[in-house]
Amino acid sequence: MSERMLTVGLVQQAIADNDKNKNWQVSKLQIERLAKKGCQLVMLQELHSTLYFCQEENTDYFDLAETIPGPATDYFAQIAAELDIVLVTSLFEKRAAGLYHNTAVVFDGKQGMVGKYRKMHIPDDPGFYEKFYFTPGDLGFTPIDTSVGRLGVLVCWDQWYPEAARLMAMAGAEILLYPTAIGWDKTDTPEEQQRQFGAWQTIQRGHAVANSLPVMVANRTGFEQSPIEGDPGIQFWGQSFIAGPQGEILASAPADKEENLVVTFDMKRCESVRRIWPYFRDRRIDDYQDLTKRWRS
After folding, report:
1. What confidence score (pLDDT) does residue 192 get?
2. Domain with 36 in it: what CATH number?
3. Which ranges carry the CN hydrolase domain (predicted)?
4. pTM for this one?
5. 3 state DSSP class of 153
6. 39, 46, 66, 224: which one is catalytic?
7. Choosing from 39, 93, 116, 119, which is the catalytic residue?
8. Any catalytic annotation for residue 119?
């Protein structure tokens, strides 16, 4: 089995304000650095254009949304074209007045925008009021074809659902990618923080194992103050990582600073792993009907 090498990179970034142009320029610099290191595929974190505005419910924040196509897609399409890379970005999409999505957009060199994925699972927790802003995605779990392979792009809260990863894998995804914005409540104890991070990393490594696919996770870092008086804000826990098709950690970032990660995969290894661990062969699809139900009594 011949090799098929692919060098990938991701950007872990801290966001200080809602100045999109400044944040885009910082992202561009990091993307360029990764391209110089040979990265053919680069991913940015979730909602990288602005602060994580979902800490409160405020209709003024809908002004931050971008049309697709629009200024943001024009900007990142140009970067992908100039560097001749595949670039995965994350935008607050304005589809129509009153209709918004949390959307990952993929660009492929001079081809421009080649696909998008609208976040399917939308959380609604203290400090993460995403249901106020985002309509659940309607594009399904459909991989995006690019010059470097078929990408299974999912977004943040999607990363907790094995069904999402499995459906992407069943549709031929060759890598699972998760732009992410997750962090700790400042009132959490150190022990609880470690449990949360451990669960987060473990389940995504599990998606790699269960589907014999590499996984890339780009999380933001830094503290973002809550606009609500008395709320503790969010300490985004960074720790972006890249795992191989058996869940092995190939690169990881620290919790508290910006960093880029670079890994070179032999994509043929995924097929080798699937030959040894044939989960898809042994799935009991004749007895999984109840998975489409909300609950079993």
Report:
1. 95
2. 3.60.110.10
3. 6-267
4. 0.97
5. strand
6. 46
7. 119
8. yes
